[in-house]
Specification:
155 residues; 3-stranded antiparallel sheet; two-stranded antiparallel ribbon; 4 helices; 5 strands; 35% helix; extended
Length: 155
């Protein structure tokens, strides 16, 4: 993202680091669970969570986070490498290769070789506080949204 130059009296804008890994031999849906798990965590906490997860995607995501952390210190003038948090983390669909799987009696099936992309955005600073919502609050909001809806083209 390109921002306009800052004025001298403005506070320093926190650094944003975008990093990705493309064409990972793993399902985007399996990667999505891990990506949403670490969203909003500090970088040290995210790496610790991924280290104790025994999925293949967790190992790949941990490598990407460590690369992004190193990039932040070297290229983006981040002073402390642990002063980062995961602002965005998501996976996308990569190339799907169709292959033939042979069955008996001259039959065959089509098999997909799936690939995915993983994207992460690190922001300098501590993670923002998220407000805890109880089930009662969510139910109250839902009932309010039901009361406020209107029927189009009615009297």
């Amino acid at each position: 993202m390109v921002y306009p130059p800052q004025l001298p009296d403005e506070p320093r804008r926190p650094a944003e680091i975008f990093h990705s890994r493309r064409q990972i031999k793993y399902s985007k849906d399996k990667m999505w669970y891990l990506a949403t798990m670490i969203k909003g965590m500090s970088i040290d906490q995210a790496i610790a969570q991924l280290e104790f997860n025994d999925k293949k995607g967790a190992k790949i995501m941990k490598e990407v986070l460590l690369e992004a952390q190193e990039m932040a210190v070297k290229n983006h003038n981040v002073e402390y490498k642990s002063n980062l948090y995961v602002a965005e983390s998501h996976s996308g669909k990569g190339k799907y290769l169709k292959r033939i799987r042979f069955h008996g009696r001259g039959m065959f099936g089509i098999m997909d070789k799936v690939y995915c992309h993983y994207f992460v955005k690190l922001v300098e600073g501590s993670p923002p506080k998220t407000e805890e919502r109880t089930g009662f609050d969510q139910a109250k909001e839902y009932v309010e949204s039901l009361k406020n809806r209107t029927i189009r083209h009615s009297l």
